[in-house]
Each structure stands twice: as C-alpha cells, then as structure tokens.
Amino acid sequence: DTGVSQDPRHKITKRGQNVTFRCDPISEHNRLYWYRQTLGQGPEFLTYFQNEAQLEKSRLLSDRFSAERPKGSFSTLEIQRTEQGDSAMYLCASSPTTGGFEKLFFGSGTQLSVL
Amino acid sequence: EDKVVQSPLSLVVHEGDTVTLNCSYEVTNFRSLLWYKQEKKAPTFLFMLTSSGIEKKSGRLSSILDKKELFSILNITATQTGDSAIYLCAVDDTNAGKSTFGDGTTLTVKP
C-alpha cells in the first residue's frame, strides 16, 4: 500500500494557461474523488469516479474543468484557461466500496498558483 | 444541500489541556459522520460514526454522535504539541457519493 500519490506537488502558471494534474489512487480502490481546498476552508467536492465512470460533478464546477479516469486506474484533472480564482490545493482521494460505509484516503495534493 | 458547521474555528491551548471540538450538520439522508486530522497537506482518517450515543475511542481521542440533535463532538485529552492540526468533520449522504466537509477547527497546542 503506497498510498494515494499526486503529481505535481506544486504548479505555478499564468492566467489563461491550461494545467493538468494526475492522481494515482490506492490500487484496489475503485472510487476516486477530486476536492479543492483554499486557505481557511474545508475540502470542496469537485467530482468522483466509480471505476472509469464519472458519477457526479459539482454544479459549482465550470466547463473549464474536466476530469478523466481511463481504465479505472489513475485520474487526471484539467483546468483550461486558468483564472486567479482557481488558485487552491487540489486534493485527490480514493476509497474502497465495502458495505456502503467508506473513509477517504487522501493524497498530499497539488498546490496551484495562478499569477 | 448538505451542510456542516464546525466550532470553534480556532483554538489555542497548552499541553495537558483537554479540548472539545464541535460539529453540527444538516443532511437529507444521513449515512455517516467522519472526523479527519489535517496536519500539513493530506487529511487522515480518525473516526467514522453511524449510530447515536456510541463513543468511538482511540487513545486520547474520542468522539460521539447525537443524531437527534444533529451534532458530534471530538474530545482530545492530555493534549500534546503533536495534536496541533486542522480537524475536519464531514458527513455522508445516503443518496450522494461524496462527503461534505466543514471548514475545520485549527487547534494549536503550545508547550
């Protein structure tokens, strides 16, 4: 069990650029989540996958955000035409689905700064 | 929409003190309430509570849920500097696949 890994750890970009983050979940976990966290706030749900199917996407998420999980393994989160308001910590988490009661295993996050 | 409110927002204590962190929630179809500790980056799981009145305990930490009054508390006894962290409360809704988090309580334990 190597835990949830995220890459890169830090990303600095200029407004208007596209960025892509990667998450590798714990291998036997079939659920994968993306959350966003800003200073002083709790994690805010963005989207989640059950295997390769994207089951829910936050209505707060603009069309500039897209996520994929090909083959139900790793996932990518892309932000197009970044804005300064996108600056945040992007957290990935995974969980097994056993009996409907789940705890989340989080990665260390990708800190995005949009200049 | 599910909602979680934590209090206090921040707390400063000295080593050896006992602290109580509060979490109140609104959820359409309650499934579980979870506590996490966030020290630097990744939140780590502490407790999952599904039934009222049953205390979960792990060392100096304990938590209990009141489903009638819609709240939970997290107690930490004999605090240590290593307990300094953000403590997050989250609720799971039966009809949703996600956890809804509160904004956390930042605990600082001074030596």
Please tell me about this protein's structure.
The complex is a heterodimer of chains A (115) and B (111). Chain A has 115 residues and is mostly beta strands. The termini of chain A are far apart. Chain A contains no helices and eleven strands. Chain A is globular. Chain A is 0% helix and 49% strand. Chain A has strands at 5-7, 10-13, 19-24, 31-37, 44-50, 53-57, 65-68, 75-79, 88-95, 105-106, 110-114. Chain B is an all-beta fold. Chain B contains no helices and eleven strands. The mean pLDDT of chain B is 94. The chains are: A mainly beta (115), B mainly beta (111). Chain A binds chain B through residues 4, 31, 33, 35, 40-45, 48, 50, 55-56, 89, 91, 100-109, and chain B through 4, 6, 31-32, 34, 36, 40-45, 48, 50, 88, 90, 92, 96-104.
Mean of residue pLDDT of chain A?
92
Shape of chain A: globular
Roughly how many Å apart are the termini of chain A?
A: 36 Å
Instruction: Enumerate the spans of chain B where pLDDT stays under 50 for 5 or more consecutive residues.
Output: none
Basic shape of chain B: globular
What's the quick description here?
The complex is a heterodimer of chains A (115) and B (111). Chain A is an all-beta fold and 115 residues long.
Comma- or semicolon-separated keywords:
heterodimer, A: mainly beta, seven-stranded mixed β-sheet, four-stranded antiparallel β-sheet, 11 strands, B: 111 residues, six-stranded mixed β-sheet, five-stranded antiparallel β-sheet
